[in-house]
Design goal:
It contains eight helices and eight strands. 21% of the residues are buried. It has a two-stranded antiparallel sheet with strand order 1-2. Helix content is 28%, strand content 17%. The chain is of the alpha+beta class. It folds into three domains: 49 residues, Roll (Membrane-bound Lytic Murein Transglycosylase D, Chain A), CATH 3.10.350.10; 107 residues, Roll (Membrane-bound Lytic Murein Transglycosylase D, Chain A), CATH 3.10.350.10; 46 residues, LysM domain (Membrane-bound Lytic Murein Transglycosylase D, Chain A), CATH 3.10.350.10.
């Protein structure tokens, strides 16, 4: 899952931050190890999980099988057992809160496509270790997966191992038009939302102005 780095401002709450970035309070708290979601101090650096495209999207369907949640299961545990990314399970099952799954609940498990080269993060993994085991480099994995903080990866996350295609080096800039959203712009240029937020240092990604210039590539 893509993430962006955000510095907590005076007056912020996890609810207001989650609403701004289109995620949930529980997701932010889980990603940042916050024991009390009702309290965050100004100046704290947070890693905010964001979706690459809107939740209301047309899903590319593939072969699915069912899994019945057992006592003690967590979504990350199920992701690791089935070698499917936790973000993929969240999308396929339309989960609003990945921390809230119940015993007996039926989850859809997508079959892995043979051509998709990915690695599911195991407990205790580091990006350096994954790079060494998969004949890659930390730099390549960071670029391909648009990872904001290489020191923070979570159990159950999927890491794309495919090579990033070389792109022209010339800078690309885009002028926001009426009806644009960050989701549509990211999809049009084939980049992630987290990438655009970080590159343009957007503090309110859900509010764009007509005529605003966005850097797509430096």
């Amino acid at each position: 899952m893509e993430t962006v780095i955000y510095t907590v401002q005076k007056g912020d709450t996890l609810f207001s931050i989650a609403k701004r970035y289109g995620t949930t309070v529980n997701m932010i708290a889980r990603y940042n190890g916050i024991p009390d979601p009702d309290y965050i101090e100004a100046g704290r650096i947070l890693r905010i999980p964001v979706s690459e495209i809107p939740a209301m999207k047309v899903e590319k369907c593939g072969r699915m099988r069912e899994y019945t949640v057992k006592k003690g299961d967590t979504l990350s545990k199920i992701a690791v057992q089935n070698q499917v990314g936790i973000q993929r399970l969240t999308e396929v099952n339309s989960l609003t809160d990945p921390d809230d799954i119940k015993e007996g609940q039926i989850l859809k498990i997508p079959e892995r496509a043979d051509e998709k080269k990915e690695y599911i993060v195991q407990k205790g993994d580091t990006l350096t270790g994954i790079a060494g085991r998969t004949d890659s480099t930390v730099r390549k994995l960071v670029e391909v997966n648009q990872i904001a903080d290489p020191d923070v990866i979570l159990e159950g996350e999927s890491v794309n191992l495919s090579e990033r295609e070389e792109e022209p080096e010339e800078a690309i800039e885009y002028e926001v038009k009426s009806g644009d959203t960050l989701w549509k712009i990211a999809e049009h240029f084939g980049v992630g939302i987290g990438y655009l937020i970080n590159l343009n240092r957007l503090t309110t990604p859900n509010r764009l102005c007509v005529g605003q210039k966005l850097i797509i590539r430096r």
